């Protein structure tokens, strides 16, 4: 599909599934190299709902023992962030003393990961690192280092492969960008 319509907006094809898979291969390879011979069981934290497909593809490629934990946060309304992050579902397991790989669909302004890191520190995580499928460098305003980034994109609104526009578009296999005209 070259174009999709969701609610009142048109989107055009931006990143094909094959390219997404290649980027995930590369980021998984880096994580596997960094965690080679690790003796703990790091937590892979899926930030619902957006990172569900990315987490699934990433964990298939991870070759050391991990524990999958989820939480749900929301800050977006329509095509822009509200800046206020709400944890709408708590962590599904205790993370005290654990190293955590935060798996995000996209880092935009960075409010979400800043708030999430704070929550994880409060819960006693020993170390947190961010692994994001997409990163908008022009929009990011925070100092949290992004250890693993699969793809960088311009500051535009996108949907697909887990990402939504008012809950539609998450099931798209490719990533689409908002068509301005
Ligand atoms: P941040 O807190 O501004 O970094 O935004 C992070 C969250 O906003 C992501 O986890 C997404 O759920 C959502 N988001 C940011 N940019 C987009 C986009 O272009 N399309 C869809 N959702 C987005
Ligand atoms: Mg998200």
Model description:
The chain has 181 residues and is an alpha/beta fold. The chain has helices spanning 17-34, 52-61, 111-122; strands at 3-6, 9-15, 43-48, 67-77, 80-89, 99-107, 127-135, 148-152, 158-159, 175-178. The protein has a single domain (17-152), classed as Rossmann fold, CATH 3.40.50. Helices cover 22% and strands 37% of the residues. The strands form 2 sheets. Strands 5-4-3-6-7-8 form a 6-stranded mixed beta sheet, sandwiched between helices. Strands 1-2-10-9 form a 4-stranded antiparallel beta sheet. Strand 1 (3-6) and strand 2 (9-15) form a beta hairpin. The protein is globular.
Descriptive tags:
181 residues, alpha/beta, six-stranded mixed β-sheet, four-stranded antiparallel β-sheet, 10 strands, 22% helix, binds magnesium ion
Largest sheet: 6 strands, mixed
Task: Determine and state the CATH class.
Answer: Alpha Beta
Radius of gyration: 16 Å
Mean pLDDT: 95
CATH topology assignment? Rossmann fold
| Secondary structure: helix percent | 10-25%
How many structural domains? 1
Percent range for β-strand residues: 35-45%
Q: How far is it from the N-terminal to the C-terminal residue, by CA?
A: 18 Å
Going across the major beta sheet, what is the strand order?
5-4-3-6-7-8
Q: Give the CA-based shape.
A: globular
Number of strands: 10
CATH architecture: 3-Layer(aba) Sandwich
Q: Bound compounds, please?
A: inosinic acid, magnesium ion
Which structural class best describes the helix and strand composition? Answer: alpha/beta
- Poorly predicted regions: none
**Number of separate helices:** 3
Q: What is the string of helix and strand elements?
A: EEHEHEEEHEEEE
């Amino acid at each position: 599909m070259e174009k999709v319509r969701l609610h009142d907006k048109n989107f055009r094809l931006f990143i094909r599934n094959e390219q997404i898979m290649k980027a995930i291969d590369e980021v998984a390879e880096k994580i596997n190299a960094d965690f080679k011979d690790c003796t703990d069981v790091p937590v892979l934290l899926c930030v619902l709902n957006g990172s569900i497909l990315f987490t699934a593809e990433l964990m298939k490629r991870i070759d050391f023992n991990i524990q999958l934990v989820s939480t749900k946060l929301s800050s977006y309304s329509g095509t822009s962030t509200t800046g206020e992050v709400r944890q709408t579902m708590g962590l599904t397991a205790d993370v005290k003393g654990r190293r955590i790989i935060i798996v995000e669909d996209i880092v935009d302004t960075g409010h979400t990961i800043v708030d999430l890191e704070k929550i994880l520190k409060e819960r006693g995580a020993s170390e947190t690192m961010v692994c994001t499928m997409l990163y908008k460098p022009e929009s990011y305003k925070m100092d949290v280092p992004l250890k693993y980034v699969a793809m960088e994109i311009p500051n535009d609104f996108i949907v697909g492969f887990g990402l939504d526009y008012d809950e539609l578009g998450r099931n798209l296999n490719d990533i689409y960008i908002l068509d301005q005209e």
